[in-house]
């Protein structure tokens, strides 16, 4: 999936995460995380973000995530939403990527 613009998903409410994704020219995924629980769960939050983007085939992205105690499923949902918005895809979502976590 190719990102073409900056996109946002999520809120700054408790138990949520705001994810901002923007395209990068370099071939890497850069994650900037702000979280009150970063010491306990920062590694897991980054892993979920990275795995979700890799499952979508995103290779060039800068992610700014502001976490307020979101669960993994919420993090995945916000990353998916932001990535689809950033790619400009409308209505042709790859639901197979999402189903892999339900197996």
Automatic annotation (TrEMBL):
It holds the Pfam family ACP. Keywords: Cytoplasm, Lyase, Phosphoprotein. It is found in: Cytoplasm. It comes from the Bacteria. The modification O-(phosphoribosyl dephospho-coenzyme A)serine is found at residue 14. InterPro entries: CitD, Mal_deCO2ase/Cit_lyase_ACP. One of its GO terms (molecular function) is lyase activity. One of its GO terms (cellular component) is cytoplasm. NCBIfam families: citD, PRK13253.1. Belongs to the CitD family. Oligomer with a subunit composition of (alpha,beta,gamma)6. Covalent carrier of the coenzyme of citrate lyase. This is Citrate lyase acyl carrier protein. The gene is citD.
């Amino acid at each position: 999936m190719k990102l073409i613009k900056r996109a946002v998903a999520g809120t700054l409410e408790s138990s949520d995460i705001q994810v901002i994704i923007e395209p990068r020219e370099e071939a890497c995924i850069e994650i900037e995380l702000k979280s009150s629980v970063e010491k306990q769960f920062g590694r897991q939050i980054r892993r979920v973000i990275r795995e979700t983007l890799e499952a979508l085939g995103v290779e060039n992205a800068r992610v700014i995530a502001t976490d307020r105690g979101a669960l993994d499923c919420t993090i995945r949902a916000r990353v998916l939403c932001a990535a689809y918005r950033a790619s400009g895809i409308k209505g042709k979502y790859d639901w197979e990527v999402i189903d892999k976590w339900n197996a």
